[in-house]
Amino acid sequence: MATPPNRPAGLPAWNIPTAEARARFLAALKPDSHGLVAAIAQAHGTGEVLMLAWMNAEAVEETLATGRVTYYSRSRKGLWRKGETSGQVQHLIDLRLDCDGDALLAIVHQDGVACHTGRRSCFSWGLREDSVAPLEPVLADPATLYGKPG
């Protein structure tokens, strides 16, 4: 096993599993008819739920092989390396499979914010006084993160 480069200091080591171990993990997946499994990102140390995204076998393989979380973007129809545009990278601490094999829990160290709205978590909205309202502040300007005007 090897440790990936560019891992922030102070994080638990991510020992890259062997190709054989990665293949066994992939064989345990039970993807849907589109080849996808739901993937929940949870903050290491706090348990905060950061986001829900999708992974296909290629995204799982890359995540396990690099220690950097990669998803499958349904809108772009391709791999989405979390943080490649915004710099808000997710470093893998652990990747867990649920009992049915159709969902993953990625325990991550989140650099910056997880949500494209600039909030820490994508789960930052709720029903308040008969309307849906933000529950968390914007911590990073999305226009700055993604290089687009607001």
Describe this structure in words.
- The chain is an alpha+beta fold.
- Helix content is 17%, strand content 31%.
- It has a domain at 19-116: Ubiquitin-like (UB roll) (Roll), CATH 3.10.20.
- It has helices spanning 19-28, 57-66, 142-146; strands at residues 37-43, 49-55, 70-73, 78-81, 90-97, 103-110, 125-128, 131-134.
- The strands form three sheets. Strands 2-1-6-5 form a four-stranded mixed beta sheet, covered by helices on one side.
- The protein is globular and about 50 Å long.
Outline:
Catalyzes the hydrolysis of the adenine ring of phosphoribosyl-AMP. With 150 residues, this protein is α+β, with helices and mostly antiparallel strands. It has a domain at 19-116: Phosphoribosyl-AMP cyclohydrolase (Ubiquitin-like (UB roll)).
Blueprint of the fold:
Elements: H1 19-28, E1 37-43, E2 49-55, H2 57-66, E3 70-73, E4 78-81, E5 90-97, E6 103-110, E7 125-128, E8 131-134, H3 142-146
Parallel strand pairs: 1-6
Antiparallel strand pairs: 1-2, 3-4, 5-6, 7-8
Helix pairs in contact: 1-2
Subunit structure: Homodimer.
EC number: 3.5.4.19
Pfam families: PRA-CH
